[in-house]
NADH-quinone oxidoreductase subunit I (Streptomyces badius), 193 residues
Amino acid sequence: MPPIPGSGLAKGLAVTLRTMTKKTVTAQYPDTQPELPPRSRGVIGLFEENCTVCMLCARECPDWCIYIDSHKETSPPATPGGRERSRNVLDRFAIDFSLCMYCGICIEVCPFDALFWSPEFEYAETDIHELTHERDKLREWMWTVPEPPALDPAAEEPKEIAAARKAADKLAAQRAKEQQEQQEQQDEKGGNP
């Protein structure tokens, strides 16, 4: 049986009429902020104190959008006869977000946890050259990074925390023993005329 002429138009209009009678769910974006899922990817925040200028992030970036400049500083020896120590000091850390594809490789390869995902997403600029954000702006975004998810209560304690707790307990026991010995010495001095 051949289709009735205009049946496709009638079906399309029926869908349109059904949709027109439903309540709209459009969020008026600038007036109401969207509820982003936890740990969503927005921009990259820099925790500058952890950055050792190892340049792993810049080397692994497939877009080459991370720019790092540094210089070496030497510090005098801590003890006489020791040797001078040198360390890299961060001069410039910039990310060109017009090139970045938000893959997260730089965050994954950072061995010192200096880079984090921030949920900030409102950083549009009128000029493409202004999308290169320097370390000051990246540091501002660092404070919008959410806390990591809590550990599973049934999971075993990380080795680092267990080792730190063991060392802290040992130190506390040693201090308590020293205080007890000092107390005993004071009691002996006070008891004998």
About this structure: The mean pLDDT is 88. The first helix runs from residue 7 to 21. The longest strand covers residues 85-96.
